[in-house]
Amino acid sequence: MSLRIQPISGFPEFLPEQQIAINRAVDVIRATYESFGFVPIETPAVERTEVLLAKGIAEKEVYGLRRVQEDGAEDSAKELALRFDLTVPLARYVAQHYGKLRFPFRRYQIQPVWRGERAQAGRYRQFVQCDIDVIGDETLSLEYDAEIPAVIFQLFRRLGIGKFTIRINNRKILTGLFQSVGLADDVAVRAALNVVDDLEKIGAGKVLHKLGELGLAAEQAERILHFFDTKGSNDEILAQLKAMEVNAAFAEGVAELEAVVRSAPDHVLPRLDDGELVDVTDERALFPDYFKIDLSIARGLDYYTGTVYETRLDDFPQVGSICSGGRYDDLVGTFVDKTFPGVGISIGLTRLMSRLFDAGIVTPEAAAIAPVLVTVQDRNALPAYKELAARLRRTGIATEVFLDDRKLKAQLRYADRRGFPIVIIASPEELDAGQVVVKNMRYNQEDRVAIAQIGPVVRSLIPVGFE
Amino acid sequence: MSLRIQPISGFPEFLPEQQIAINRAVDVIRATYESFGFVPIETPAVERTEVLLAKGIAEKEVYGLRRVQEDGAEDSAKELALRFDLTVPLARYVAQHYGKLRFPFRRYQIQPVWRGERAQAGRYRQFVQCDIDVIGDETLSLEYDAEIPAVIFQLFRRLGIGKFTIRINNRKILTGLFQSVGLADDVAVRAALNVVDDLEKIGAGKVLHKLGELGLAAEQAERILHFFDTKGSNDEILAQLKAMEVNAAFAEGVAELEAVVRSAPDHVLPRLDDGELVDVTDERALFPDYFKIDLSIARGLDYYTGTVYETRLDDFPQVGSICSGGRYDDLVGTFVDKTFPGVGISIGLTRLMSRLFDAGIVTPEAAAIAPVLVTVQDRNALPAYKELAARLRRTGIATEVFLDDRKLKAQLRYADRRGFPIVIIASPEELDAGQVVVKNMRYNQEDRVAIAQIGPVVRSLIPVGFE
């Protein structure tokens, strides 16, 4: 009897060729994070339910655990629930291991999170997040806020997924602005931030209406909306902001934003002409085109208190923000009587890769991870075919041997369907003579090569995308 | 108010320096798997509960999901449960995506699994497994069984965790033997296999007693026990086995074991003297010392039907098997009306690394992933310090800048505690003159270096273990 296999809605799963592309992206993300000194941590999939709910997430989105077999006894699994982000676990981790960590603590974490959302197109119940955060012990220099855009810039440049824009703002500017029109308490300001965050999506008319609902007079709402007309280059926007006299919070936000915007490019390498790095691209000259102040960025639902970031693909705005984050005054405070300010970003990897696949920006071609398949023409000579593969592996070239007993034609069909770029074919006589045929599958070209020189020849044929 | 932070029993969590060591091990495992052509897949953390339980795992060990917020409505989350191994998800994956996969399907999967076991020393409720399997469509050559030991050999040789032994056996030999003494049905044979599997742990006396409990006469039990005295080199054991006349199943097992043992070394590279690889170690000459027939290996509780493997560290037998697996006639059959034979192994990574840490075989030293820390002596020159770090990154050297406003002494203490091997120190005057001091922390040695040549100098100082 066979069970019917039905995919589980909201829990995405990929074919090998897609997983290979995803893993390559993770390698780039991880290497970039590490290049800035971020260290890896992983936390268990579960946290205590009370720890998770302390941060005010919607209870209905949290998956709890239970024993499948209910035996009447108290089920201690019910005290545990799956994490819904990587930030709460980080806060708990810092509080728990405080004495063994050094601050500023830079950590990266690439793990799945779970959210019991109503499943709908593009919404996942399980997805991988790639987070970095720098956590200070009591204080943390604004300089760390300025380093993050350089990390984002280098990461997506390396991923090669097209032109993108890192948009930056400071929540204090918006908070100051809203306070200046009489939205005094945090709840009202937060509600207004949410409205503003939707400006691009819902348009000016609806924003005015919604601000009215929050108790703002029409004139005040117009004043808010007018503020978001502040446009131009980063320098132009900063000049306009500095000319506005609003209140202390506003001025503080402007000063922070200016410091971060001025300081960020220093982390990106300019073209140098001093011998060592003559030929490098001038990344710093490119950077300004990728890094823009956008006063409408609010990250309304999050706990950010200062700098906020969003990143979008210029040619695929429908993909939405592919990397968001910001500065928070105190993350861990729920758990210990100490202040831990931090700044960080998160990349929603599963959503990003799905959208890149859907939009055709990333097209997984090969379901092969090894570039070479050694076919077996005569099973009596199997040891020689296997040794050939072992030799290629030893020169650092991943190599699969076709070990099932099939005709050469079937083996070549397998190679073609899996997308192997290079196939080795040899008769026992050729092997005896120390020769094989190296077939370049993409150009349908065959070359006879001496086994003793096979390493360099095969390496020269490996296309981009294979190691 | 602060919450009390209490670790969750059975859900291990590591410090950054340990996680770095774990990730380096994963890199080696992944690279080795890929070098043999295994492709990555990942499956969701959950499967349908009915799918998981179809494979006969103890229900009480399975963690189910539920909504934390119970609102009276039917909770569809209760249809889902966390996977307890990577084999059931593989079976479901192959059945679900059959038309889009090519066979033989070689996959690797490195993901956590969850088991609701009673927490005790060394037992984890969440742990990472690193699995490979080759799945055939209806048939799968025994040659794949012979490739696995070469994968294990190269993997643990590269991990560098000391001398180990891959032990191999064939379940048909044991099944045949037990049938020959009258244990006719599967349940009895399985029970006997479990008893034999414990031979090393509980000793001959207890095994005899337990075999008696299974209904074997004393003479038959003695005969079984005597069989396990078959010792010697692989050749000697095979010669003795071939001389025994037991039954057809036994003979088939012996023939398979011989084929696999004879064929396995071909996958390992010998010393070659033909120009390209003159200087390589003769791995094939080493292999026999790492690869032994052990007739007592039964993997009693598993679903293996032919070849079985276990791997242990010679000098740390208490660590137990660090890599186990085998051949199964049909894995996926529960889900579709087709036969998918397979062979695979699993490494219990979390347990392995914990034991290696505990036994001092792996001692994580540095909590730094980047080898270089750039200190900041004068914040007015921050742009120059940051550019220096960007330059090192551009030459491929991961580099952290200390961006908080602290005295140099505090920055050096931070570098020391995090285990940075290389620290860059410079005054603004030195920076203006194009020079910095490169401090080798492990030898407490300082060198003045021109910035224009810093890449090669720093690279030459990076110790093993850093990229």
Task: Describe what you observe in this structure.
The structure is a homodimer of 467-residue chains. Chain A is of the alpha/beta class and 467 residues long. The first copy, chain A, folds into two domains: 16-45 and 83-358, Bira Bifunctional Protein, Domain 2 (BirA Bifunctional Protein, domain 2), CATH 3.30.930; 372-461, Anticodon-binding domain (Rossmann fold), CATH 3.40.50. Helices cover 38% and strands 18% of the residues of chain A. The first copy, chain A, is built from 16 helices and 16 strands. In chain A, strands 1-5-6-11-10-9-7-8 form an eight-stranded mixed sheet. Chain A has a five-stranded mixed sheet with strand order 13-12-14-15-16. In chain A, a hairpin with a 4-residue loop joins strand 15 and strand 16. In chain A, helix 7 (199-213) packs antiparallel against helix 8 (218-227). The two termini of chain A are 43 Å apart. At the A-B interface, helix 1, strand 1, strand 2, helix 2 and strand 3 of A face helix 1, strand 1, strand 2, helix 2 and strand 3 of B. Strand 3 (63-67) of chain A pairs antiparallel with strand 3 (63-67) of chain B.
